[in-house]
Amino acid sequence: MATAGIFCRGGRMNRHWTYLLLAICVVALVIIPLFAGPFILYIAMRVMILAIFALGYNLLLGRTGLLSFGHAAFYAAGGYGLALSMIHIYPHPLLGIFVGIAAATLLALLIGFFSVRHTEIYFAMLTLAFGMMVFSLMWNWRSVTGGDDGLYGITRSSISLGLFSIPIRKQFQYYFVVVFFFLLSVLLIYRIYRSPFGLVLAGIRENHVRTEFAGLAVKTYRLGAFVVSGAFAGLAGALAVLLESNITPFAAHWGRSAEPVLVSLIGGLQTFSGPLVGSIVFVVLREVVERFTHNWMFWFGVILLAIIMGFRGGIVGSTADILKRHSRTS
Amino acid sequence: MLQSLVHVCLAGISTGMFIWLVASGLTLIFGVLRVLNFAHGSFYMLGAYVCFTVLTHMGNNFWLGLVFGPLVVAAVGYAMERFLLRYVYHLELPYQLLLTFAMVLIFDDVVKIIWGAGSTGSPSVPGLSGSVSILGRNFPVYNLFIIAVGPLVALGLYGLVEKTWWGRIVRSAASDREMASAIGIKVPILYTAVFMFGAWLSAMGGALAVPYVGLITPGMGEAIIIEAFVVVVIGGLGSLRGAFLGSLVIGLLNSFGTRFIPMLDMFLIFILMAVVLLWRPQGFFAEADA
Known about the structure:
- The complex is a heterodimer.
- By secondary structure, chain A is mostly helical.
- Chain A has helices spanning 15-35, 38-63, 72-89, 93-115, 120-140, 142-145, 171-194, 196-206, 208-213, 218-244, 254-267, 274-292, 296-310, 314-329, and strands at 151-152, 159-161, 164-166, 246-247.
- In chain A, the strands form two sheets. A two-stranded antiparallel ribbon of chain A has the order 1-4. In chain A, strands 2-3 form a two-stranded antiparallel ribbon.
- In chain A, strand 2 (159-161) and strand 3 form a beta hairpin.
- In chain A, helix 7 runs antiparallel to helix 10, helix 8 crosses helix 10 and helix 11 crosses helix 12.
- The longest helix of chain A has 27 residues, at 218-244.
- By secondary structure, chain B is mainly α.
- Chain B contains eleven helices and two strands, in the order ααααββααααααα.
- Chain B has helices at residues 2-33, 40-57, 62-83, 93-115, 141-163, 165-175, 177-182, 187-209, 220-235, 240-260, 265-279; strands at 131-134, 137-140.
- In chain B, helix 2 (40-57) packs across helix 3.
- Classes of the chains: A mainly alpha, B mainly alpha.
- The interface between A and B is large, with 42 and 42 residues.
């Protein structure tokens, strides 16, 4: 039930077809390693990690209407949390991921506690300030974070589960770990969207005064959305470190914070699957454009301009609008 | 000790003046257009590059570059406001911010395409090269010149905004757009003019940075825009006086931080920004009526 509406809003498409489409997507994800080489797998993993980051982030931007420019801090907290626990505590990937998520969640709670006092531009500026604080901390605290070199040489040791252990050192082995966390995240975030909590967030976006009048503690809900999105950012950061085997302070830089914003915008802010589609487009397009030209940023800027000036629903929103218009006329 | 203190102060003030030139345009544009322009650092960068190109084509005359560079950038600002920004004023904040962010990406790559990714050479400025001795230690004359230019620009802006007919129109449009347009002010033209003027100010800052060695790189815009954001926040969004004082504070904090507590140099600035936003979001130096 929970997954029926992931790709279409309001059940316009036949529900059985939606299930079928979902099943095809999941099967395709699982069997990709049979056909694809390591490069395609690497790209697929980057898409999924970015999608986890952006899906969680859009809970805050698209759903609650808060523009944060500091979410790279939680992404980096997840990454450093994992790296430090793998190096200093015990090299178990699941423990590392757990520590990463915990670190990101705690940091999001702390930063969010102060940030949700403001909205709009002041919220954006406040999260930017906190995010850059985390960046400079990671940059300067050389003894713990390795300074500008960051932490490197984090190997993917096997996931031991008592009786047996699962090796994830090879690319295609780790691929399934990413698929697992990706599907789990999609499911969880979808449930959050449809939960009473998620509906209140949409209410806050539409009219926070009325929501307040309805007797709901708007700030607490905003903080809730902030922390949940921070936790998913942490998961994404942790998975990224396992993929790349290193992390530098630039993971916390505001340029990184812009990524989930851009991805959500490309896909469509007001849709659930927007950030997912946006992540695919962002990563794949970048690989394609960089084949032909070194000026990826230029073309990406042009695409952004086109979306802002003409297709503000993003890919998913605009397509849905066209389909709706089409079905009405026919 | 005194000697080193004075020199750290002077260095901080001259850095602050560059930030001021960017922040003044940024806060002016925010005050009137209500748009926070990420691309303002790009104008700073473009100002530097265009100035450099102009001066190399005109017999290495820095002053010609300083005059013409910012004018070219003001024209770029005109195009950006007239053909892009104008269509997003009615939209939500993310769209406005991301439009200017898209322009940052485009400008950054355009600069790399035209001028290459390395840093350019730096010309010497006739009459302002060399250094003077202050308390027994050498200090570049050009830095003293920058320290003088900043307050002059501030005075000029103050006169323009507070004392002239033009400034009164700008202030009226800033406080109530609809009312201003109801009494016959052509607000769209005013918006374009303010944006161009802001771009020109930022480009002036960039052009003035040209004589520094190694400062002209494609990353220079991104580095200064964050500091300018901090300044504009500390001074109060839209407040020119606040931006001037804020620039001094950030410049000094920068130079003292690097000198005495290098561990925390960036950290301090962002703490200050967060504290001001939480404690006095209208800005630390904002006028009572602002």
